[in-house]
Amino acid sequence: MTKLKAVEAQQRFAEVLALVGEGQERVVIELDGQRVAAVISYVDLKRLEALEDASYVLYFQRAVAESEGESYFVEEVIAHYNKLNNTDFTIENILND
């Protein structure tokens, strides 16, 4: 993993993209001594998204297991999700998406 200051990352942006794009490197960008960003390959991004999706499935499975046979209406699930995530999904926009 390469660490670069923000100014250096900006100056060497084409080189950073080449390193990351070839899958050779992950680049951490620092600003005022703090790690603020990372440049990763698209393949790495897809891996992270797959892990995130898998964790959502695990959370869902745990919630179902903990419900001990209780039934919930879809509307209740959506309302709870909206409350937790500050969203405003409805059955209609989920089905039409």
What can you tell me about this protein's structure?
This protein has 97 residues and is α+β, with helices and mostly antiparallel strands. The protein has 2 domains: 2-43, 3-Layer(aba) Sandwich (YefM-like fold); 52-95, no CATH class. The chain has 5 helices and 3 strands. It has a 3-stranded mixed sheet with strand order 1-2-3. The longest helix has 25 residues, at 42-66. The two termini are 38 Å apart. 3% of the residues are buried.
Summarize the structure.
The protein is of the alpha+beta class.
Determine the oligomeric state from the structure.
single chain
Count the beta strands. 3
Total domain units: 2
Through-space gap between termini: 38 Å
Strand coverage percent: 15-25%
Average pLDDT for all residues = 82
What is the helix tally?
Answer: 5
Main β sheet profile: 3 strands, mixed
Helical proportion, percent range? 55-70%
Order of helices and strands: EHHEEHHH
Question: Over the alpha carbons, how many angstroms does the gyration radius reach?
Answer: 20 Å
Net shape: elongated
Task: Give the key terms.
3 strands, 97 residues, 2 domains, YefM-like fold, elongated, 5 helices, alpha+beta
Q: Would you spell out the secondary-structure blueprint of this structure?
A:
Layout: E1 2-5, H1 6-11, H2 13-21, E2 27-31, E3 34-39, H3 42-66, H4 74-85, H5 91-95
Parallel strand pairs: 1-2
Antiparallel strand pairs: 2-3
